[in-house]
Amino acid sequence: MNSVKRIRILFVISIMSMLLLSGIDRALGQGVGVGSASASIVTPLSVTADTPLKFGHVSPGVPKKVNRTAVGIDTTAAIFSVSGENLAGISIQFILPAYMYNSSGDQMQIIFANDDCTIDSLAGTPDSPGAGAWVGENPYSLPSANIGAANGSTSIYLGGKIIPSMQQAAGSYSADILISVAYDGT
Question: Are strands 134-137 and 46-51 parallel, antiparallel or unpaired?
Fold first, then answer.
């Protein structure tokens, strides 16, 4: 019985040795390569509201439009500047108010038409945007744009219209115009 047990043990050891050796054989037939990963972080975006949308003096019951091209002392298009990585693609979204309010809580309607916005990546001005600017865009649905190559900046010009009621209370009215800009990966 001892010899049968020994034979079994030797048999199991032989099989295990063969399995181990065949694994080494396969391992010796394989190669190993080393790759790498890299990334460059782009310049952070900076968004500033340079000039407010100014309607100037308004009479009750008389609507007043400020064009996206307006540059003046009393009435001016809103101007926003976006700076970041040259030529990087960006998406732009506005959150636009429906009303302006005075300190007493009185409201006045403000509207934005589907052509009240210009996106200028070539360092123009509201009344003279650079060649290739997106002129007359819908501020509720803006196209993707690029950061300007010349100076790493893009300007956004926004006009609008206010509609005071016949009984509009006197005073100063204001509202926030929010803009969100993000890299879009292009």
Answer: unpaired
Domain count across the chain: 1
Tokens of residue 74, six digits? 């009393």
Neighbours of 69 (CB within 10 A): 16
> What's the CATH code of the domain at 109?
2.60.40
pLDDT in tens, 50-99: 999 999 999 999 999 999 988 877 789 999 999 998 888 999 999 999 99
Please, what sign has the CA dihedral across residues 163, 168, 172, 173? negative
Q: Is residue 141 part of a domain?
A: yes
Q: What angle do CA 78, 79, 83 make, to 5 degrees?
A: 150
Question: What does the block give as tokens for 181?
Answer: 């800009």
- The alpha carbon of residue 57 and the mean position of all alpha carbons in its chain are separated, in whole angstroms, by 34
Beta strand 160-163 pairing with 107-111: antiparallel
Q: Report DSSP state, residue 163.
A: E
Residue span of the structural domain in which 148 resides: 46-183
Residue 85 lies in a domain: yes
Spatial neighbors of 157 by CB under 8 A, at least 6 apart, are 68, 69, 77, 78, 79, 117, 118, 120, 126, 129
Q: Is residue 10 part of a domain?
A: no
Residue 172 DSSP code: -
Structural domain contains residue 9: no
Write the pLDDT tens digit of every residue in 122-163.
Answer: 877 777 887 778 899 999 999 988 888 667 888 999 999 999
